[in-house]
Amino acid sequence: MSRTDRLYSRLDDLLAEFTDRLARELEAVASGGSSAFLSRMESGPMGLQFLRTPECDYLERLESDIRSLHSKLGEPAQGGPMTVLDEYLARYGQLPDRFDGGAVSLAKKMLAELRAQQNPGVEADRSG
Q1: What values do phi and psi take at 68, rounded to 5?
Q2: What whole-number distance in Å separates Cα of residue 25 and Cα of residue 18?
């Protein structure tokens, strides 16, 4: 197996794990809970560093490893769970009602999109 093949194999493994874990984070928010990983960009004098968990740290390492492997392979880290994550974070930062149901609605939409990517025959709700 060539080095490139090993990198792609590792990338596939990381993406599969990241997709499962991202789905769980989105499910938590979609059910009215919270996710330190998905709200890590929250601004404020202290940010949300006090909410960090080992799971959040692990997800950030997975994300970093995935982006690094994409870079080593000379391709953008687009598509799949990375696009869902990037879109969630961008849209979350613009939600005027993130603490009043906006995050729940957004998480539901992004979870549907992630699941549609896993099951291409299922259409995601791209509205809103």
Answers
A1: -65, -45
A2: 10
Asked whether the beta carbons of 14 and 66 are under 8 A apart, the reply is yes
Residue 2 near residue 10, CB atoms below 8 Å: no
Which two structure tokens, joined as six digits, stand for 125?
A: 């709700």
The residue type at 69: L
Q: Has residue 50 got a pLDDT over 70?
A: no
Model confidence pLDDT, tens digit, residues 104-117: 999 999 999 999 98
Cα gap 94→126, rounded to integer Å: 17
Residue 7 has which token pair?
Answer: 């990198």
Q: Among residues 25, 30, 31, 27, which one has the least CA distance to residue 51?
A: 25
First to last CA, the chain: 45
Sign of CA dihedral 22, 26, 31, 37: positive
Number of helices and strands in the chain (H, E): 4, 0
What letter represents residue 22's amino acid?
Answer: L
Burial pattern 78-89, b for ≥16 Cβ within 10 A else e, equals eebbbbbbeebe
